[in-house]
Design goal:
- This protein is mainly alpha-helical.
- It is built from six helices and three strands; from the N terminus they run αβααββααα.
- It has helices spanning about 5-10, 15-25, 35-40, 55-70, 75-85, 90-100; strands spanning about 15, 45-50, 50-55.
- Strands 1-3-2 form a three-stranded antiparallel β-sheet.
Amino acid sequence: LPAAVEVAAALGTRVDRSAWRAACALVDVVATHAEEEALLERGVARPIEEGWAFTRQRYRRAAAERAWRSGRWERSHAAIAEAYGARGRPDRQGAHLVQGSPDQGL
């Protein structure tokens, strides 16, 4: 599984494309259009207005577990929180702050 998919898994079932790409850039991962297209073509994701959504939760969970085992899960959440914060989206930032650094969310 590509590292960009791990970041997407941290975003949740619905993946906001701009937040995904921004968070990936913050952790030095490139989220390519080709990766997104591959997920759509394989039926692992479906397009939605703001990006795409996982259609197979087992695939999302596998990416999340891989990120967790490799120590990248918290880093992904911290990057997502930063990306949402930069976009003025505190409504989406909070949960990721808690996941990215427990002290920040308290």
